[in-house]
Design brief:
The complex is a heterodimer of chains A (about 120) and B (about 110).
Chain A lengths: L2 E5 L3 E2 L5 E8 L9 E7 L6 E6 L5 E3 L7 E6 L4 E6 L8 E8 L5 E4 L3 E5 L2
Chain B lengths: L8 E4 L5 E6 L12 E5 L6 E4 L13 E6 L2 E6 L8 E9 L4 E4 L3 E5 L1
Parallel strand pairs in B: 1-9
Antiparallel strand pairs in B: 2-6, 3-4, 3-7, 5-6, 7-8, 7-9
The chains are: A mainly beta (about 120), B mainly beta (about 110).
Chain lengths: ~120, ~110
């Protein structure tokens, strides 16, 4: 059974860079059929697509976040990562990593990790 | 403001049928992109409920069904049960944004 697990600091200061890693187990991140994505959910609000990455390193980003987002993949560790720069309180959210199926829907999700932006 | 519009809340009594709408535009649902639905119970990650407009993953009861027409899609839940109380989200792709998009979510209350 495929499992995804987010990890990283739960508290980030304003103007700094948020960094999270998603570790994939029970399957290879090098699978040719899937993209790997990040989605976030501010407290009490809806879901927002951040971006996605292929094992080759090809990426897609939400245009509203593109200038601040970098998503990368480390196939040797079966991990992919998210960096969001210049964070503000508006970036406070639960961050999920997930696997996109060929039809661009998400079957497997991590449990999510809350990142709070505060000084 | 979400690209896909959902009603903030719907409610129904146990055993009843409810529907949740998801309205898009010519750059997403109307352009032919598939709609997918997720159920999110409090404090948990979303769970895929419907994919490709009307397909149920293994393990999802047939009480849940999806449909799509024009620039809109709908999720129907029949035989409402207390355990169905959750937030529901639709998702599609938007060609003008070149990105995956979600609806704002609908909170289902079982009376």
């Amino acid at each position: 059974q495929l499992q995804l697990q987010e990890s990283g600091p739960g508290l980030v200061k304003p103007s700094e860079t948020l960094s999270l890693t998603c570790t994939v187990s029970g399957g290879s991140i090098r699978s040719s059929s899937y993209y790997w994505g990040w989605i976030r959910q501010p407290p009490g609000k809806g879901l927002e697509y951040i971006g996605s990455v292929y094992y080759s390193g090809n990426t897609y980003y939400n245009p509203s976040l593109k200038s601040r987002v970098t998503i990368s993949v480390d196939t040797s560790k079966n991990q992919f990562s998210l960096k969001l720069s210049s964070v503000t309180a508006a970036d406070t959210a639960v961050y999920y990593c997930a696997r996109l199926a060929t039809g661009s829907y998400y079957v497997y999700w991590g449990q999510g990790t809350l990142v709070t932006v505060s000084s | 403001q979400s690209v896909l519009t959902q009603p903030p809340s719907v409610s129904g009594a146990p055993g009843q049928r409810v529907t949740i709408s998801c309205t898009g535009s010519s750059s997403n649902i109307g352009a032919g992109y598939d709609v997918h639905w997720y159920q999110q119970l409090p404090g948990t990650a979303p769970k895929l409920l419907i994919y490709g407009n009307s397909n149920r993953p293994s393990g999802v009861p047939d009480r849940f069904s999806g449909s799509k027409s024009g620039t809109s899609a709908s999720l129907a839940i029949t035989g409402l049960q207390a355990e169905d109380e959750a937030d529901y989200y639709c998702q599609s792709y938007d060609s003008s944004l070149s990105a995956s998009v979600f609806g704002g979510g609908t909170k289902l209350t079982v009376l």
